[in-house]
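Async update (no meeting this week)

Hi team, since we skipped the sync, here's where things stand on the single-chain job. The sequence we agreed to prioritize is pasted below, unchanged from the tracker. I ran it this morning and attached the output directly underneath so nobody has to dig for it. Comments welcome in thread, and please keep replies under the output.
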Amino acid sequence: MTISFLNWLKVAYHALLSSILALIVIAAGPASAHEVFPSILNLRADDGVILIEVDVNAEALLADVDLSAVADTDEAENAESYDNLRALSPQEIADRFDSYFPAFADNLTVLADGAPVTLRNNGVIVQPQADGELPRETRVSLVGDYPTDATTLDIGWIAAYGTLIVRQNDIANEPYTGTLSGGDMSGSFNIDGGNAQSGWQVFVDYIPIGFDHIVPKGLDHILFVLGLFFLAARMRPLLVQVSLFTLAHTITLALAALGHTQFLDDFFLNTFGIEFIAVVEPLIALSIVYVAVENIFMKGISPWRPFVVFAFGLLHGLGFASVLAEFGLPDNAFVPALIGFNVGVEVGQLAVIAVVFLCVWQALRVDRGANEANQGFALYGVLLVVAAALMALEPAALVVALENPVWVFAAPLAALFVLCIASIQLRDKPDAYRRLVSNPASVAIAVVGAYWFLDRIGGLAFL
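Output:
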């Protein structure tokens, strides 16, 4: 029996509501929660004494949050304990960390010529909390003794403490810099230097850092790129938009990394008492709204859209730079690290586009005249079953990889599959794909962007 036009509109409508709900839940997290950043360890070693200073999220460690398993501390099982600790004063956190120090020292491994170095507490300084939505930085200082004839060091800590960036200081001869995750050790490096990674090694190491900022952590950038995609899933408009967006964010990312945007930070702090990034983040949310809304009213690239996309790309580049600043760039390989990070960002964006393109490809083919409706129904039926199974089973490995519950990504995809089915069913109607897939998806993206904008400026408090 043929399903009526009205019934398919109802299906598309409910799919749209599901998509909007799922995306709003996704978007609410980064805007209101506490993002996980890497810890940075600086060390100096000379004449048998090693001095270490490591910047950590002390509240997360005290609350026993597994920083390797979440991208946001609000997702942790013990998030309530973490939030309670964040409400304490800096001195109270310092006192608690002093008591916690023996466990912290046990979880931080320092080897000199393969032999363990015993570390002592050399002071804990908790920085004031300038922004309640950002982690509060705590600097832990440790000191230890090692044999004066030792020639190498090896550094690492447990996986639950998250990513660790290790930097060797006060060495003129190629100091060591490394990014460690998953409980890995740095590997032996010379106490007197000569350990710097090659430019190629640094380039390769920074690619996954850039990719990770898009997938799975860069939900705002993902939505913007999807907004570009849903204007028209054709090569020319997509290539024009993505190329301009890439060029623009590469420019501002490089300028910010080189310190040439510091005047903006100084201006906003001195004039308005806020950091420049606090202005950039709401504007990024507005950029999502704009491209999504324009998709609904324009069938192709408007005369002004390339300029607008380029301008928004400049904003997104500043957003990328704020994340890159948390990792830092090694002085001896600044350019390879910057390029590697940017390549990772681009690969992440292309991965997002590729996945969504594959999801809608069959619906597009039918919309463009291919006589493959039955294949489309079968394909999207299978994909819906797979999405439902993933949401029901919640594979642990996939949860860790996505750093979110599986349904957060699977539910919007399932809604997209339903919309594609509706588009195929109504393939004889004009612009079926655009009306039943592209436009509803753009509406969902616009709603998320608007929600995110209000949340970032505190507007939701008045609703």
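Quick observations from my side:
The chain has two domains: 5-33+209-462, 39-185.
The two ends are 46 Å apart (CA to CA).
Reply here if anything looks off.
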